[in-house]
Specification:
- With 222 residues, the chain is mainly alpha-helical.
- It folds into two domains: 16-78, Arc Repressor Mutant, subunit A (Orthogonal Bundle); 83-221, Up-down Bundle (Four Helix Bundle (Hemerythrin (Met), subunit A)).
- The protein has helices at residues 16-29, 41-48, 52-64, 83-107, 110-125, 130-148, 151-173, 182-193, 197-210, 212-221; strands at 38-39, 68-71, 75-78.
């Protein structure tokens, strides 16, 4: 069982607006709301049993975060990123998650290593199920960020994950298996065990950037 320190980038909803925000954001991250999808406040409100106002507030919040676009007289839709924007997101992820990984190497405990190894096993067991694999993969990266114990850095990375995760889901849908990335995660865990901050940072940067060509190809063709 994973230790209690494992958590999601998402927070538990405390208000109707927060519930609507998390509901829409989760749909985007899980690939249920694809880029270009129109978001109707009435439909979303009916899905979660609330009024339109909290949904509109959630949409405005998501627009400020760059996940959706509010179009005058045409409503909201999930944002479609350009190639330049995708490159920027993954370049930022590489730098920030590399930094988080280096912090994690300084803080990592035996329980943390155990959690990461369990998540890696979950990725292996997912087989050809792209959705299960990407969920475990995201949790692996989130777990590393939590070990880093850098809250401000975590918030920045969480925002980038909200943008990059849907792109990764599209990418993996067209692949027979994501096995080729597993060795990179094993290398990361080995470097963490050795508490080699510089090596962990370099491995994380390389791991994220290595996926970029395939992600661009899959999403530009989608």
């Amino acid at each position: 069982m994973l230790t209690a320190r494992l958590s999601s980038f998402d927070t538990a909803p405390a208000t109707a607006q927060e519930e609507a925000y998390q509901h829409i954001k989760r749909g985007i991250r899980m690939g249920e709301l694809r880029p270009g999808t129109r978001l109707a406040p009435d439909d979303i409100a009916a899905e979660i049993g609330t009024s339109r106002m909290p949904v509109r507030e959630a949409l405005n919040r998501l627009a400020t975060e760059g996940l959706i676009i509010n179009r005058p007289n045409r409503g909201a839709m999930v944002r479609v990123l350009t190639e330049k924007e995708v490159r920027e997101v993954f370049s930022m992820r590489a730098v920030l998650e590399g930094l988080a990984a280096s912090f994690a190497a300084e803080n990592v405990t035996a329980n943390d290593i155990h959690d990461l190894e369990q998540l890696l096993q979950r990725m292996h067991r997912s087989g050809l199920n792209a959705s299960e694999w990407i969920t475990a993969h995201s949790q692996f990266h989130e777990r590393l960020c939590i070990i880093a114990d850098a809250p401000q850095l975590l918030r920045q990375i969480a925002a980038l994950h909200s943008v990059s995760e849907p792109l990764m889901r599209v990418w993996l849908e067209g692949r027979p298996s994501p096995d080729y990335v597993h060795d990179r995660h094993h290398e990361l865990i080995s470097a963490l065990k050795a508490k080699d901050s510089a090596l962990v940072e370099g491995l994380m940067r390389a791991h994220i950037l290595r996926t970029l060509p395939g992600i661009l190809q899959a999403n530009l063709a989608a």
